[in-house]
Amino acid sequence: MDEAPSPRSRFALRTLTRTRALVLGALGACLVVLVLLFQWNWLRGPIERIVTWQTGRSFEIAGDLDVDLGRVTTFRADTLSVGNAPWSKVPVMAAADRVELSVEIWPLLFKRETRITDIRLTKPHLRLETGPDRKGNWVFGDRDGESRIVYRALWIDDGRLLFLDPARRTDVDVRLASTPGATPADSPPVDIEGKGRWSGNRFTLAGQVASPLALRETDKPYRIDLRATAGATRAHARGTLLDPFRLRDFDLKLMLAGQNLEDLFPLIGVATPPTPPYRLDGRFTRDGNTWNYDGFTGVVGDSDLGGSASVTVGRDRPLLKANLASKRLDFDDLAGFVGAPPQTGGSEAANAQQRAEAAALAADARMLPDTPYNLAKLRAMDADVRWKAHRINAPGLPLDDMDAHLLLEGGLLRLEPLNFGVAQGDIRSQIRMDARSSPIRTQARIAARGLDLGELFPRAELTKSAIGRIGGDISLTGTGNSIAAILGSSSGDVGIGMGRGQISNLLMELAGLDIAEALKFLVTKDRTVPVRCAFGDFTVKGGVMQARALAFDTTDTLIVGKGQISLKDETLDLELRPRPKDRSILALRSPLVVGGTFKDPSFRPDFKRLGLRGATALALGSIAPPAALLATIEVGPGEDSGCGGQYAK
Predict the structure, then answer these.
(1) What is the pTM of this model?
(2) H or E stretch at 356
């Protein structure tokens, strides 16, 4: 049986109880006082030191700090700033008027994991830039291991983002503002609007991108929908990127439009000849150092254009590879390749500069384009481009299709081949332009085969019933930085001819100036007359084509000629002597002089030399086509290819 506590023991127990009560009461009172008097600003220093340790950058809260306690605790801080990388000239990388962070407490206490459910930024200012070693200031130290900070949502109110890459002469300055996402749980996308320079060229930018929080997830797609303009060039990119700051990988639909494809050269380093206004849309991706533009379709001028192209960088010069196709090619859209503007009349597509150039060209007495090629562009990149046009629209020209293969390497440009289907035949060319030094040295080899005479002049009433096949060869070399200069200095050979066929008798009577016969055919039905052969054989030296042999022989009329054509001065000086084979008393048999210029030719009889037959007779013995030219034309059945009729005997 236990003994009852002594009076002394009971007193000690009561004393201890009172002491505990007093201590607990004091602690409670102190806690109440602490709660009542506690200032959250007292935690600014510890928080600044923790963030500095975590990031390796200075961190300052210059305004008030406040906290709403709960299962999800919200921290509010005013006037914050984060220091920049040591190499930057600007000490502050990021700043904001106010930052609100909502953090889940239990994962923080028991899992040591920081879950930030919501971030709200008021007037944030973020400066992203690359350093001398191409390292971005957004790389915080070299801390290893997986981050234990989880971000879920970000809201930006009146933000500003700067991106600077001095090595690439690029700077971007955009305003940002969050917009509600598809669902409340989504981190809201951001509307952006800004401007800047890309590779030194000014541009503007507008559109929408995914939350900036997604920029940290370099292995997950980052969605964008942006429109940009640089001068007259417009682009619309929509799709996804991986690791956007390094453009490691992306899959975008990219629309490009502008007044001239040539404007892309300073923007992306791809050199093209001048073009009319264009609009293209295709899939834009990257594979290592190769940027691909696949499956694009669109228009350039009045021509449709589609295909795939790629640009490979990371070599001495960018390499452009392309496989292009046009279902319908408007021929004048190729004018930029020779330094001329496209046609500008009616509904023809052209930009303002090209309209001005076309007006100046129309007022110029000369016709050959004298716009110099840009040697820097020809040397700036390499290219391997194939272009096929299935149908060509060329009013006045019987062009059917085109097959071109352009190769460019270090300023050496080759067109191997440049082929056109023409009047049921073809013209095949190989052109070599060496722009590795100035002036450009050019070689051209052109072969025409099987061109139908009647289709060569589709608008000429007198040739509609013509039958015959034309062929020939052109071999020229020249130096100069424009088409006019190249042809004006050229040397080589030009030969063209036709074998057996037929032509309008009225045309031949007019050429022979047999007035009686011509009048008869004008008032009655014209008929055709057989052609035995026709040819022109020229030697070219210093831009002047000198006729070695020139003849046109039918059963009605023989025409022989002499003279020259100046590619340098763009002038004509040919004398054609018709010899009608009938005996009309009104046949004037006067020499015909082809003169004037390429742009304004003249065709007139020389009555002063009326009836002079001696020169004609001297030429009759040498009017057979040269052997080299004879091999290019279809002489038809039979052995008679000598031409000249009874006058050649």
Answers:
(1) 0.76
(2) helix 352-363
